[in-house]
Amino acid sequence: MTPSESKPQVLIIAAEASSAIYAQRLLEYWQKENKIFHAFGVGSKDMERLGFEIVGRSEKMSVVGFQEVIKHYSEIKEVFNQILDLTKKRRPKFALLLDYPGFNLRLAAKLKALGIPVVYYISPQVWAWKTSRVYQIKKNVDKMLVLFPFEVEFYRKYEVNSEFVGHPLLDELNPAHFDKKEIQKNRHRYGIDAQDHLIGLMPGSRWSEINHHLQTQLRTAELIHKRNPTIKFALLVAPTFSVDEIKNILPDLKIPLILIKEDPMSMVSLCDEVLCASGTATLLVGLMEKPMVIMYRMNSLTAWLAKKFVKHTSFFGMINLVLGKAVVPEYFQEQASPEKLSEALEIFIQDSEKRESTIEELKSVKSLLGDQGATQRVAKILEEYF
After folding, report:
1. Which of 13, 41, 159, 359 is exposed most, by the fewest CB atoms within 10 A?
2. For residues 17-29, b (16+ Cβ closer than 10 Å) or e, as one string?
């Protein structure tokens, strides 16, 4: 038995970019508290730097859509089997599963059969689509830790053991992100003056999203620039990519484009508006009080399946879902054209009243997500399993 295997074992599955950040914060907290443990499973390079044992890399496993999953099925299945083999050998104290329902709900059933306690942190969006999954959750998950208050009532209705911990994104907020002098100092580092108008482009954190969104977002920027030549654009590079990886796939551009890679909130703080792929990023942008236009495109089969199964909500943008209304415009599939996206963004540029009213509505999202300290609350709940 190796020294790491002699410590209490913890299985963590954090295959999404945002999930990996939340798992990373938990590892950092445990280390700060001098917790003795060894964690293994699916995670990011940043988690690995903290001593996390990588079985599957979130940078490779974060795929979305039916065809994309089929394409990567063999390597995902291999990781799944390796996780099970290690779990049988090491008997972890518990498994912490974050989002990624196609993989994690199947894994939860296997773990339950092995007698491993299963805690699910970041609920699948069963309240929006594939609601039947709630019965799998009730059967195989010992505790569901939810980020949104409305999820508590949903799970209570199905008698699932759940607890509201608040949203860990709140812990990423920093007063410097809202300090105008600090923002301008950071903008100046990238050649963005106080009077410059900067639109951020956020095409996503998965390669499939880059493939479906980047060209559309760049074309949108070109249309805006053609009508507003003084506007500047920044491509905000997700944590899952390097600047060089993105730079290598950029076409010849007709716009002034700055590539930025910092922590996501610092990047968003530099922008006046954002063109954002749907997902957790929309919540992040909303917390930063930046007007945005949400878009999402996918292959036609996955889009057809999404339209078929998503029946319980009027919105797909997380920020609109949380606020319960269309505070910012969202465009899906063929509606997410450069023409429509550019027109929607230009409303925020030209209509100061619309811009300010949107900012005011976005400010209310903080109060809907609980208090800061989600990571500490999760750690406290997990204590009973160590």
Report:
1. 159
2. bbbbbbbbbbbee
